[in-house]
Amino acid sequence: MKVAFARGLQTGEALAASVSCAGSSSSGSIPTLEGIFAEILVDNILKLYDCIVIVGIFVLFLSQLPSFHSLRHLNLLSTLLCLGFCICGIAGSVISGLSSEAPIKDYSVQGSSIHIMFGVFNSVSIMMTAYANPIIVEIQATLEPPSTAKILKGLLVCYSVVLSTFFSVSISGYWAFGNSVAGVVFTSMEPFAPLWLTILGNAFGCIQTIIATVVYLQPMFAKYEGMVADVNAEQFSLRNVFPRIVGRSLLVGIAVLLAAMLPFFEDFSALMGAFGFIPLCIILPLWFYNVVFDGKRTLRNRLVHMLNGVIIGISMVVTALGTIAAVRKIVLDIDTYSLFPAS
Fold this sequence. Notes:
Amino acid transporter transmembrane domain-containing protein, AA_transpt_TM, transmembrane, Amino acid/polyamine transporter I, amino-acid transport, transport
């Protein structure tokens, strides 16, 4: 039952993250294809859903790669794109912050105490969605034994890239623009940084999130193909290729349709982080550890059990408050929502 719950949560998070990434490649709180077209086209007639469909076409093509292993080169490219985005973001922020026409910076936190509190938990939930990318290393279950050292090495690399890129861009952007910084930092730096720099940064982020969409879809593909594939037939036989193409195309189509209908990525990213990624990344692994090693009552295990229990308790509180904060934000923003928005 516990494993089934974890698998169901993982599958749901994979779909939700895929929808969010598909839309985020086009618009939202991270770099955008829509932003690139707005910069290079004088009369940009493309709508938001047009950009999402363009992203979907690239995802549809890349999603035909058969396994996690076949994505290894794309994962390397994704890492390089993260670093490129980081460099562009920092450079643009420094140029903007040192500009003679730089805006007045205000680093104060706006709003009432309740607003600030819910904002903190909402932000923590969004950060969990962002920092949970390395969980893919843990769930793919394709490593040859001994797998522990390889998983640890993979997680260290993932978190090193995530922390170095995310924090450096966040800190430099906040330094340059204060609390007026936009969700897409390149939007704030448009009047100050070179045009080519903002286009390049948006392009790096857009391509990276296309790759992330493909990666997040893989657990769903594996689940689907485990039910329909013939293990006795060749991987690239017609018997296995046809249902793979049809099923993967259908799943990508569903993700793209939902992204075009509901492109409210920041709010739903917070809900995903609070309700999905905190339990999946923190609570369930520690809970399973305590269950598996419950019989070994050594002093070390007792201390580990106690520490895990404290972390689980704190994480459950954060999950509850983060979910409330995310739902509250969605309710507050509901008036700005519409199906298939043009921008």
